[in-house]
Amino acid sequence: MKKVVDVCTRVEGHGNIKILLQKDEISSVNFDLEIFRGFENILLDKRLIDTPRIASRICGLCHASQTIASCKAIESMYEVEPSNQSVLLRRLLMIGELIRSHSMHFFFQAFPDLFVILDKQPKPLSLNELIHFDPKLTSNMYELIKIGNEIVNLFGGRTVHLITPIIGGIFFSPLKKEINIARKYLQNSINNLKWIIERFQEIFSQFDPPDVYSLPNPAYMGMHNDEKYDRYNGLLRLAQNNKIIADFPVYKHSQYFDKQEDIRGIDFYLKNDQNILVGPLSRYKIINDYGIDELQSYIKLFNKEWQNSILFSNVIRLIEMMFVSYEGLSILDDTELTQKNEINPINFLKNNEGLGMVEAPRGTLIHYYHVNKKRLIDKVKLFIATEINLPIIDEILTTQSQKLYERTGDFNQIKKQAQMIIRSFDPCISCATH
Question: What is the pLDDT of residue 415?
């Protein structure tokens, strides 16, 4: 029989946990995303020029990544390259988006659970307890969320569903005043993050993450640019056990993975039937070095037990926010930012299909479009990070729920544990129910 556990809470979107019982034993546990919003169908028969605006509505958290991946897919069809200034501005939008997304997940979703997982407290902190646990931590986290919002607003025209990114570039040239404001925000971001990382280490690094959250040796996938961290441009890498399985440009993705139209799920064609993990931890695993000594020193504060656990993603999110803050400061020093922005024309369609890839906060994001003779979209594939991670989430849910059920037979405990496992992956259900 099936047992449907209440909706999983404190995640972006809505999903159920489904437990399949056979002869009073748990056969499988699945994170079930029943909601269907159908963005792959919504985009059908649309003009290419309208597509990025529609695609941004897939998600209210990673709308910049959705918009930019959409623009990049269409630009590949016209064989148009945005100006360097436009690329820099797009990177700034993705930086603001990541700071906001990571800080919200860390503080509201992950942090309360860590007291239960590591410090054995009976239940997660309530919102009131969370806010008052450490007033300086709360203040710093809320300021990070504001910084992310303001960076996006400065260069995107508003905080959600941006208006400046268009096919061919960014329809905006910032003033020196706006650049100076952004610089102060990012400097504050770095200062806040230094304090938060040290506070996190003080509270939690003394504990070893429990085996419940150990990763079952997945293959990691993410973007890199000449071995360096890059979320806008580069090759896709598949790696496992510190060995590279494959490096390939996005247009060769179908040699390694693909999906059927109108069917959920992404199929990977690897020699061994590995589960694939994407996201902050995967981005770290495929490069192993951010190129900033300060960040590497923070990582070394956490032992190997941490680095083999999905809970280590919480550390990496903090590290990523600091890295992109430094990256943003470097971009803001580029004199090209304030020059008059020119958008390359998109008059002649060169290809009837195109691909656009970025690393969204939660992992690899790819948009694929195909147009008919009327230049209307007739095929759409959206490769979403949470959808890629679902098999490994379900594997951990099943294995750990079976163990807990054998020991206790208590579905309430299974429910609580399952929800914390799911939240540790930071799923974006709005994106995954496209």
Answer: 87
Q: In whole angstroms, what is the distance from residue 46 CA to residue 157 CA?
A: 24
Q: For the chain, which residues score pLDDT lower than 70?
A: 1-14, 34-37, 261-264, 432-434
CA 204 to chain centre: 23
pTM: 0.94
DSSP secondary-structure letter at 380?
A: E
Taking residue 299's Cβ as centre, other Cβ atoms within 10 Å add up to 18
Q: What is the CATH number of the domain that holds 346?
A: 1.10.645.10
Rg (CA), the chain: 21
For the residues of 48-113, what is the DSSP string, one character each?
GGGHHHHHGGG-SSSHHHHHHHHHHHHHHHHT----HHHHHHHHHHHHHHHHHHHHHIIIIIIHHH
DSSP per residue, 193-259: HHHHHHHHHHHHTTSPPPGGGB---PEEEEEEETTEE-SSS-EEEEEETTEEEEEE-GGGGGGTEE-
The tally of domains found in the chain comes to 1
User: CA 204 → CA 108, 117, 201, 279, 301, distances in Å?
Assistant: 17, 10, 5, 22, 11
Domain limits for position 380: 2-432
Determine the pLDDT at residue 5.
53
DSSP letters spanning 6-29: PPPPSSBS--EEEEEEETTEEEEE
Cβ burial, residue 382 (10 Å; 0-12/13-18/19+): buried
Q: The tokens of 133 are what?
A: 């646990």
127 token code pair: 């919102």
Best CA proximity match to 188, nearest among 151, 238, 239: 151
Closest among 356, 370, 417 to 223, alpha carbons compared: 356
Query: For 410, which DSSP code?
Result: -
- Other Cβ atoms closer than 10 A to 265: 10
Provide the 8-state DSSP code for 402.
Answer: H
Angle between helices 84-104 and 63-78 (to 10 degrees): 150
Q: What is the pLDDT of residue 35?
A: 63
DSSP β-bridge partners for residue 214 = 309
